[in-house]
Amino acid sequence: MSLKDVRVKGGADAACDHHLLLGTFKVKLRAHRDSSAQPHCKYNILNLKCNKAAKFNCTVKSKVFPLEFRDEDLNINWAGLKKTRQETCDKVLGRGLNNPKEWLSKETLVFDNAEEKS
Questions:
Q1: Could you tell me if residue 11 is inside a domain?
Q2: Total domains, the chain
Q3: Does 45 map to a domain?
Q4: What H or E segment, with its residue span, contains residue 53?
Q5: 59: left (phi > 0), else alpha (psi -120 to 50), else beta?
Q6: With a threshold of 0.90, does the pTM exceed it?
Q7: 42 Cβ partners below 8 Å, 6+ apart?
Q8: pLDDT in tens, 34-74
Q9: Considering the domain boundaries, does residue 24 fall inside one?
Q10: Is residue 65, in this structure, part of any structural domain at all?
Q11: Whose CA is closest to 39, among 74, 90, 101, 77?
């Protein structure tokens, strides 16, 4: 929300210091996205940089090729591919680690404390 214009109108004829304040706002709306289709966890993609990339590719290929895509309904085919991807990621990559970075490092705190003392 942002404020575009502000105007002050004088008060009534009574002896008071109150003024009417008029403002114009610009409201920005965000798009609502359905989060039910998104995975509820992150996978440990650092394992792909290691030696597990070849194992991941081999596992995906071995599970995708036997799938038969003869159905005319694309939703069924997509559901099969999605299930295959999720199972392979769970098995090979594993869940991602949630290690938030420190906002302030210990060195910064020590430096800040030293400046305050001097």
A1: no
A2: 1
A3: yes
A4: helix 52-64
A5: alpha
A6: no
A7: 95, 96, 98
A8: 766 665 677 877 777 777 788 888 888 887 777 776 667 77
A9: no
A10: yes
A11: 90
